[in-house]
Amino acid sequence: MMSTIPGRWLATCLCFSALATSLMLLYAHQTIHLGASGFALIVGGVVLAAIRYRFRNPVTRGQRVARDGAEYLGAFALVSLLGAVVSYPEAAVTRGYVDPSLERIDHFFHFDWIAWYEVVAAHPILQLLGRAAYAGIFVSPTLLLGYFAWIDRKSDARRLILSFWLGALLTLIWFPRVPAVGPLAFLWHGAIPYMPTSALFQAQLLPQLRDHVVHVVDLGALRGIVCTPSFHTTSALLYIAAAWRVRVLRVPLIVLNCAMLLSTPVEGTHYLADMLGGALVAAIALVLTTLTEIAAAEVRSGVLARARA
Questions:
Q1: For the chain, domain boundaries
Q2: pLDDT, tens digit (0-9, with 9 covering 90-100), for 97-143
Q3: How far is CA 290 from CA 4, 99, 159, in A?
Q4: pTM for this structure?
């Protein structure tokens, strides 16, 4: 029997993430720069927290939707922000690159990244569609969590948030052991006919972070520097798993996230090996989430049994 994951469990995960991020920043001698964009993020977080607190005891459906929506979106946004920030101090302690090994894995599966990139570079419409699909990483959770708040499906919302947190945690544990500059920097030679969304951030930022040239993490200009495993792949599969439970959103979100997967090799400058790693992370995260739900059900059953005794 499954059970809603307790809110205090999720709060503990978020507190752990905030503490770990702070300690990693201190260890790497890095600081946070807010700027206008960062300040807007803080204000947005405060507003969501205020809504959650103001309607903590809702008396109308609208208040309940506002409370739950603020809780879900705030928690999800915090996981995303902390995950992006902590990747910078993690990158500072990495050594070497594993691109040759990743290329060999691609070759084993007969995946030709250069050919894939050349097709996209030759067709502007594929570039436009790819960029839009790659940005879907922000669209799917907004739709899902907003819908869960609207129809009062707290268990599904917290399941998605926890699985996303676990996916981010596993990704960040794996990343320092397999740093890479990505296939665009490693495989492509000569002028670049099309610059993808992820550009050459891994190749440019990793050496600077390792040499401690970059000491400031700008919240308004966070860059994706995790090559392996692909977190876009992890996210897409987690979103598909969540959408599968929602008939009204199932088809559009599956289509959107399949499109995001197709865009990931070029727009994310990822090897197929990165995506396979991301798929593995998603599978483990879903299994751990299910085990957590089972544990929550057992705890709840124990509490009820003691209350009746």
A1: 7-308
A2: 999 999 999 999 999 999 999 999 999 999 999 999 999 899 999 99
A3: 11, 34, 8
A4: 0.94
